[in-house]
């Protein structure tokens, strides 16, 4: 949905507990929230579980009439916290947190797709894996989710200028790694 | 860097790069909705319109302070629905008119299905035509009338161009053939009516207003025709690809109606050209001065003579369309209709620009030389057995 007015109206409807609007909101956000989480966790199953949890938590927040000033950044904040909670839970259980790489996740996903990727895209995926979290996050938001700089600034709680600088550094870092 | 960005883009649709499976998306949505449904509110006290008002007021209150204050008073007195009803009766230039158009924009923004969007937009074009008709009748001051008619005509052009673009988009993208066919039929039918309504409205305008707004009205008619012809092309294209929701008879009727409409345009262009020829011949300007206006340069045929020949050319093209229709070659017939309309539009545009030059030219001496002969009905004779034009319609009489 590229229509900013339509988006704002949708957010208002969601905040007013309109279930159909929430369904549309889900359609709009599920892929990007899933991807946001995907790059931070160790398996597809975890990414799926956490994504579902994010939307349930969002709904719970709305149902409890809690204030949401910016729903766009709020949903990402829930996602980020969900990942943090997952790792906290894992470390409490003394389960060794496997240092899984994106390549491992790739092995778990569609095998046909893995074969079809080709070396170029494989290099890019490995490059993303090697970046620090902050850089990987902004690359994913900008180039895979195709969010605007304004939207990214809201999500990361940074100024537009900072986002631009961070994006430039991240892209350069990825380019250096992929070379 | 370009290669890197290109590769990143390629990752978008890969599961290894975080694209969730479609099956998981629908399953998880179903589970989520089943969990929230018992908790969601069914009826909203604000009403759907409340969202419009709520958002409208928060976004537009700064830009529209005087209107906003007035609207607030109205809203408090009448409530939301009545406020919008009052705004819906407003005309361009009225205080509440921006509320009417803002309300329409919000309705469009909340319509997510592309086919319904096109139909809604076409409905709004109809509203613009109603506004035009009301302006013609109700506004007394000619200066005001000219300004409002011009604004209404420009809005019609703009809105109908959007309809055309969006219809093209959905006809290329949509897998749902039935809806696209229905939308195209809707646009085809309504644009014919809109074109006729604009012509009828302008016939009621005072002469000096007509001259002032002629270009804007012609643009509105041309845009409407263009959208209608595009819609007809979509219908014919889908029919020829095997769409069963339209019969051979219906396609024939629609193409015939569009041919008739084009012949009416041609007849109108002939009237305009002849009027201009009379004006030029009666002009007291020196021949040299008139020739300076009429010729592009000394070596070419006069511009007016070119304009005079165009309705003849347009009629020949529309006759070809009729022949193709007779052979059931619908798509070629529609192409010929579009070609003929372009020629007519060109002729009318040339007439307008010459009219402006003639009016601006100060008379200097008497000339008895006839520069060019008016077109006679013999010049515009259809070779088809079906003569569709009974009356001539003109923009400038």
How would you sum up this structure, described in words?
- The complex is a heterodimer of chains A (179) and B (397).
- The longest helix of chain A is centred in the middle third of the chain and has 22 residues, at 71-92.
- Chain A is mainly α and 179 residues long.
- Chain A has helices at residues 4-15, 19-38, 44-63, 71-92, 102-108, 111-116, 118-130, 133-144, 149-156, 160-178.
- Chain B is mainly α.
- Helices cover 73% and strands 0% of the residues of chain B.
- Chain B contains 14 helices and no strands.
- Chain B is globular, with a radius of gyration of 27 Å.
- Residues 42-48, 295-301, 362-369 and 386-397 of chain B have low confidence and may be disordered.
- Chains A and B meet through helix 1, helix 2, helix 3, helix 5 and helix 7 of A and helix 1, helix 2, helix 3 and helix 6 of B.
- Strand segment count of chain A: 0
The level of helicity of chain B is over 70%
SSE topology string of chain B: HHHHHHHHHHHHHH
Largest sheet composition of chain B: none
Unreliable segments of chain B (pLDDT under 50, ≥5 consecutive)? 42-48, 295-301, 362-369, 386-397
Write down the oligomeric state. heterodimer
Backbone shape of chain B: globular
Put simply, the count of helices of chain B is 14
Strand content of chain A: under 5%
Of all chain pairs, the largest interface belongs to: A-B, 54 and 42 residues
N-C termini distance of chain A: 35 Å
Low-confidence stretches of chain A: 94-109
Strand content of chain B: under 5%
The secondary-structure element order of chain A is: HHHHHHHHHH
């Amino acid at each position: 949905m590229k229509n900013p007015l339509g988006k704002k109206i949708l957010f208002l409807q969601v905040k007013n507990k309109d279930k159909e609007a929430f369904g549309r909101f889900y359609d709009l956000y599920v892929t990007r929230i899933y991807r946001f989480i995907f790059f931070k966790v160790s398996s597809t199953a975890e990414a799926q579980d956490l994504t579902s949890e994010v939307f349930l938590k969002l709904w719970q927040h709305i149902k409890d009439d809690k204030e949401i000033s910016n729903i766009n950044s709020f949903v990402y904040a829930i996602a980020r916290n969900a990942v943090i909670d997952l790792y906290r839970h894992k470390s409490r259980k003394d389960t060794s947190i496997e240092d899984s790489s994106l390549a491992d996740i790739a092995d778990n996903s569609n095998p046909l797709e893995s074969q079809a990727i080709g070396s170029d895209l494989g290099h890019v995926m490995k490059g993303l894996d090697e970046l620090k979290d902050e850089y990987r996050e902004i690359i994913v938001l900008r180039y895979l989710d195709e969010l605007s700089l304004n939207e990214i600034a809201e999500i990361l709680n940074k100024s537009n200028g900072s986002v631009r600088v961070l994006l430039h550094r991240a892209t350069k870092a990825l380019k250096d790694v992929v070379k | 860097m370009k290669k890197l960005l290109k590769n990143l883009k390629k990752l978008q649709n890969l599961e290894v790069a975080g694209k969730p499976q479609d099956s998981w998306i629908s399953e998880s949505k179903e589970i989520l909705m089943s969990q929230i449904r018992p908790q969601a509110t069914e009826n909203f006290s604000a009403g759907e319109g409340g969202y419009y008002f709520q958002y409208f007021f928060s976004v537009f209150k700064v830009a529209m302070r005087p209107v906003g204050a007035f609207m607030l008073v109205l809203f408090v007195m009448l409530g939301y629905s009545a406020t919008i009803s009052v705004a819906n009766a407003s005309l361009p230039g009225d205080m509440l008119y921006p509320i009417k158009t803002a309300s329409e924009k919000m309705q469009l923004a909340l319509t997510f299905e592309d086919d319904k969007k096109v139909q809604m937009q076409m409905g709004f074009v109809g509203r613009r035509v109603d506004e035009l008709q009301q302006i013609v009748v109700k506004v007394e001051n000619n200066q005001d009338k000219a300004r409002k008619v011009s604004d209404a005509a420009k809005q019609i052009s703009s809105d109908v161009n959007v309809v055309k673009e969006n219809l093209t988009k959905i006809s290329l993208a949509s897998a749902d053939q039935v809806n696209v066919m229905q939308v195209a039929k809707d646009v085809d039918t309504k644009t014919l009516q809109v074109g006729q309504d604009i012509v009828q409205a302008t016939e009621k305008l005072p002469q000096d207003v007509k001259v002032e707004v002629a270009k804007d009205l012609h643009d509105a008619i041309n845009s409407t025709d263009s959208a209608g012809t595009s819609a007809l092309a979509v219908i014919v294209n889908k029919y020829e690809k095997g769409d069963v929701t339209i019969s051979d008879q219906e396609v024939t009727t629609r193409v015939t109606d569009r041919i008739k409409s084009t012949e009416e345009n041609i007849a109108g262009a002939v009237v305009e050209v002849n009027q201009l020829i009379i004006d030029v011949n009666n002009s007291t300007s020196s021949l040299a001065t008139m020739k300076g206006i009429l010729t592009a340069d000394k070596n070419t045929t006069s511009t007016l003579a070119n304009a005079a020949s165009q309705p003849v050319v347009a009629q020949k093209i529309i006759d070809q369309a009729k022949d193709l229709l007779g052979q059931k070659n619908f798509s070629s017939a529609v192409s010929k209709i579009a070609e003929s309309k372009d020629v007519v539009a060109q002729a009318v545009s040339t007439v307008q620009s010459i009219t402006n030059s003639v009016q601006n030219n100060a008379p200097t001496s008497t000339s008895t030389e006839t520069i060019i002969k008016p077109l006679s009905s013999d010049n515009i004779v259809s070779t088809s057995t079906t003569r569709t034009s009974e009356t001539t319609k003109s923009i400038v009489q």
